[in-house]
UniProtKB/TrEMBL annotation:
Gene3D superfamilies: Tumor Necrosis Factor Receptor, subunit A, domain 2
Gene of this entry: K132l
Annotated Gene Ontology cellular component terms: membrane
Stretches assigned to the Elapor1-like galactose binding domain: 2-117
Source species, domain of life: Eukaryota
Name of the featured protein: K132L protein
Example of a GO biological process term: positive regulation of BMP signaling pathway
Species in which this protein is naturally found: Pycnonotus jocosus
Lineage: Eukaryota, Metazoa, Chordata, Craniata, Vertebrata
Length: 249
């Protein structure tokens, strides 16, 4: 296979005559080092390790980029110093096929890089979120009808009679006047007299105000109307619902 392949706790190089690279890019806050363990027992495969900067220029620290062979079954180790800034690490193998002989792959494990600093500062929670515990790994979303600005420890409640806020809001919004789009109607099941009642309900959560100029209020519920006729193939047998017609009718 012309690739590096994971094999449990190590990775394995190619076994063919292709040139294959394992590449890892890291940005160091300070100078450091890279260390890895490896098995390299077959000189019919070339094994190089070298480092480039972000301008693709090879670093002086890997002037001797050829990795030494190891004894059969033994793990060797290799370490190189790294400069601060961008470092692009290359593990490169090229097999040399000699007739039907199978090349033994290079194995690499325990790659360790030093000099990668942890986050040196905490990041403020963005507007609409908060964090109330020290050492938190993330921020929580402000619940409905609350808001927060950047870096909040808690969310502030909106004045609910005049304002509302969706989850994760950075500010409260004025409640608009209610319109016909803010409520809906339903019909109760038909009674024995063939009547249904119209009931009106607000869409939840209700965000509109009924006390503003031009606002609609919820229409009164309870008006009785004739039930609509049953669909073809159904009939009303004096119950509250339509029933399928029996066979032969």
């Amino acid at each position: 296979s012309s690739s590096w392949t994971p094999r449990g706790n190590y990775i394995e190089s190619n076994r063919d005559d292709c040139t294959v690279s394992l590449i890892y890019a890291v940005h160091l806050k300070k100078s450091g080092s890279v260390f890895f363990e490896y098995q390299y027992i077959d000189n019919n495969i070339f094994f190089e390790f070298f480092i480039q900067n972000d301008q693709c220029k090879e670093m002086e620290s890997t002037a001797d980029k050829w990795v030494k062979l190891t004894d059969n079954g033994e793990w060797g180790s290799h370490s190189v110093t790294l400069k601060s800034g961008s470092n692009i690490l290359y593990w490169r193998t090229t097999g040399i096929l000699m007739g039907s002989k199978v090349v033994k792959p290079v194995l690499v494990k325990n790659i360790t890089i030093e000099g990668v600093a942890y986050t040196s500062e905490c990041f403020a929670c963005k507007p609409g979120t908060f964090s109330d515990k020290p050492g938190a790994s993330g921020c929580q979303v402000c619940p409905r009808d609350t808001y927060s600005e950047k870096g909040a420890k808690e969310c502030t409640k909106c004045k609910e009679e005049m304002y509302y806020a969706e989850e994760g809001s950075s500010a409260c919004t004025e409640r608009p006047p209610c319109t016909s789009k803010d409520f809906f109607q339903i019909h109760t099941p038909c009674d024995k007299e063939g009547k249904t009642q119209i009931m009106y309900k607000w869409i939840e959560p209700k965000i509109c105000r009924e006390d503003l100029p031009g606002a609609l209020t919820l229409p009164p519920s309870g008006e009785r109307q004739d039930c609509p006729p049953c669909n073809p193939g159904f009939y009303n047998n004096a119950s509250s619902s339509c029933t399928p017609c029996p066979p032969g009718t």
